[in-house]
């Protein structure tokens, strides 16, 4: 895998999700999953997130919708934080999740709102 692509992806990943998350993901305790982390960094965070066709706010809104639809609460939590870092406000996060509740189902929407409330509460304590 191309180290430049990995490094570019890691920079973008840190800008969106925070340096602490990247350091934890790539830390010594993650040796087993390092190949996956490098794949995600190179392809997801570099090849996709660094494309010029959509801005980061839009990519974040899309991710919130997809992660809600896929019922991935841990990733949703990370990407709610990323969406805020990318300039979405809480009202915009709320609107994305409301739309998801209609199109993905009320249980998915309820879970997504729970994750959002928990995430907002944690961020307020930090």
From the structure provided, what is the oligomeric state, counting identical versus distinct chains? single chain
Number of domains: 2
Q: Helical element count?
A: 7
Named at the architecture level, the CATH assignment of the largest domain is Up-down Bundle
How widely separated are the two ends?
36 Å
Q: Give the class from helix and strand content and strand pairing.
A: mainly alpha
CATH class of the largest domain: Mainly Alpha
Radius of gyration: 15 Å
Please tell me the overall pLDDT: 95
Helix content: over 70%
Work out the strand percent.
under 5%
CATH superfamily of the largest domain: AhpD-like
Q: Which regions have little confidence, pLDDT < 50, spanning 5+ residues?
A: none
Question: What is the CATH T-level topology of the largest domain?
Answer: AhpD-like
DSSP E strands, number: 0
The main pleated sheet reads as: none
Shape: globular
The arrangement of helices and strands along the chain is HHHHHHH
Pfam families: CMD
Organism: Ramlibacter agri
Domain Carboxymuconolactone decarboxylase-like: 37-118
Protein name: 4-carboxymuconolactone decarboxylase
């Amino acid at each position: 895998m191309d180290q430049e692509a990995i490094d570019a992806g890691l920079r973008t990943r840190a800008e969106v999700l925070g340096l602490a998350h990247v350091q934890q993901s790539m830390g010594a305790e993650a040796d087993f999953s390092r190949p996956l982390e490098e794949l995600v960094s190179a392809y997801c965070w570099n090849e996709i997130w660094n494309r010029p066709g959509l801005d980061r706010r839009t990519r974040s809104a899309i991710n919130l919708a997809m992660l809600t639809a896929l019922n991935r609460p841990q990733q949703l939590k990370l990407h709610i934080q990323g969406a805020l870092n990318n300039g979405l406000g809480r009202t915009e996060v709320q609107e994305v999740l409301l739309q998801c509740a209609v199109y993905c189902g009320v249980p998915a929407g309820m879970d997504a709102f729970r994750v959002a409330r928990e995430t907002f509460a944690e961020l307020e304590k930090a």
